[in-house]
Structure formats: structure tokens, C-alpha cells
Design brief:
mainly alpha; 2 domains; two-stranded parallel sheet; elongated
Length: 401
Amino acid sequence: MNISGLMDLPWWTQGFASLPWWGYIVVTLVLTHITIASVTIYLHRHSAHRALDLHPVVAHFFRFWLWLTTGMSTKAWTAIHRKHHAKCETEEDPHSPQVLTLKTVLLEGSELYRREAANTETLEKYGSGTPDDWIERKLYSRNDQGGVSLMLVIDVLLFGPIGLTIWAVQMLWIPVTAAGVVNGVGHALGYRNFEVEDASTNIVPWGVLIGGEELHNNHHAYASSAKLSSKWYEFDIGWLYIRTLEMLALAQVKRLAPKIRIEAAAKSSCDLQTLQAIITHRYDVLARFTHSLKATWGDELRRLWTTHQLHGVAFARVKAWLHLHERFVPAQEKAKLATVLENSRVLKTIYTMRQELTALWQRSSATKEQLLGQLEDWCHRAERSGIAALQDFSRTLRSYA
């Protein structure tokens, strides 16, 4: 029976809210969007990353709504997401498509979530600071299916038989969009503003359907930022909701990504402010490095290809290796990469200097003065390299402020 046929049924079979066919579609979209907003604002930005504080009334509304529409507990979701950041793209990552394949994460995202939610070690290690009040212990966590059952009853009472379909869409929305699309596609396909040390991507520049979570690469670059958009053309609807709540005194933003500032004229030498800016914006630095050297290593790879010096290694594979930190290059491929680099002074210089640049913000035992000396030495060697693009990038590096 189609929707128009339902309109001819007795009033008591249609539910309390009789709507035109398009009204049911609008209601479904609104209800699922509230769920998405609850996940991105409450679970993700507030609970997992502490990027904002929420008024208790708002926080509890989100908790209640998520109990109704997903059955997920705050502690489990928070712990799993924090573990994802801590163990990203490794065997311990709960849902990495780089490890498990994109197909697995897309089709089995909710199963991966439930499996990790049953891991008490994960909950205890990563779930600190989440609600542990009476209603959480006695209702939300103890009876996680009670909420979705109640939502089914409410949908059927309000909308009649079509309420079953609305409820089914509500139940599928998070497993498909969040557990599948964000965790899967967001680590496999899309574009990258920042060269973070994982495979995260921005799926599309306009974060509307999934509440802003589409901007996943931006999030991995500045995980504790309440705002997920970065470029002028990107839109994060979750941030719009947060700003609205803030204006109503129902939320308080605690952290935002620091703004990137490049001075028009490069300094003659690096100082401590330059060093701090480079460390803070390290993923932007790496992205600019990649963009600046892209044409240079592309030309060099083509030269090696035409002169048959790639030794049977795929062109695209070598190109991908040059973008990675050496620890992410598969062990079985490192020997092939080393052979390629030995055949090209340009590629070897670029690759080596990229590794040395990333080491600047990984040497936690070095003093600021030591790191500054290493940065200045790096710039001098880049300017003496004879590689024009590397020389230009060195001047850009001195311009960070």
C-alpha cells in the first residue's frame, strides 16, 4: 500500500499526526537530523574532545534523545572514539578502513562498534569523565534497548503504520552515516587540507547531512576544536548550532583551531615564535610542503619512469610513499623505495628533508633552543639544495607567525 492509500484508512489507524506524503519525509529528515546533531555536538565535540561545555538541560536532552534513537551510551561512544584517535590506522583502531578494508567498515560499522563497546578495557581506559549518575546507571546503560523500543511506540502512535518506516530509518541513520560513512569513507576517499599522520579525509566541503562530520580531515588535524570547518568555502552546520546555543547561553566554546598566519615577508632567520607556529600548524606545514614539491617530484618520477629506473615499482605507489612518514611505508616496500631514492638525488633530498621536518615536533626531549637550531639548519640546507621548490618552501616556512 502506498502513502496516498494510507490517507483513506480510518483515523485511528493513521496515528495522531495525519500528514501529506511529503510531510512524513520532512519529519523523518528532521528527526534523523536531531540525532546527527546530538552525536556531533554532544558525543563528539563535547564528551569525547571537551571542545565545549553544554548547559545541563541541553546535555541531558541529547543523552535522552540518543537513548531513544540509538541506544548508545555516552561512555561507550566516547571511549571508542578516543581510542580511534589514540590508535588511528593501527591494528588496535576499532574501525580503520586502512586495516579492515573500506567495505568492512561501510557494511559492518555498527557491528564493529558493538564489539568494541563490549571491551571493558577500552571503556575503563578511554571513557573517563562521562556521566555516571543514577539515570545513566539505572536506565540509559542498563536498558539500552528500552529507548529504541519506546521510540517505536511513539512513532507508531504519532504516524500510524508509516511510523514503522520512520522508525526504521531512524535506527539505520547512525549506523550508515556515522559508523559507516564517516568512519569508512572519511578515512579512504575525499580531499585533505592537512597532512595528518593518518588517512583521514574531508568527504565533501559542506557538512550538512552528517552535521559537519564530513570535514573529518580537519577534525584529525585539530581534534579539540569545536569548529570543524577550516577553509572559507567549507560549511559546518554543527558549528552553526553551537554558536546558536552559545548566544542563548546554553553552551560555551572552550577550544578552537588556532588561525594560520603567514607573513608577507619572510624573516631572515627563524625565531622561537616561528618554531611555535610551525609546531602548532605542523599538519598545514606538511600540506604546504607536499603542494610546493608536487611538481618537482612529479617531474623526477616521470624522468625515472621514462629511463626505466623505477625497477618495476608502480609510479603511483612511489608517489604515495613520498607523502608518508617512513614508519607508514609497508615493511615489504621499504627496500623498493630505498632503491628508487638511490637513483634520484632530487627525490632522496626531498624525502629525507620531509622526514627531518616531521622529526622537529616529535623530539619531545629536545629544548626549544635545540629545536630552533635544528629548524634553522633545516632551512639553510633547503636553501643550499639547488632544488628551487625546496628553496621557495624554506622561505614560506620562515613566514609562519
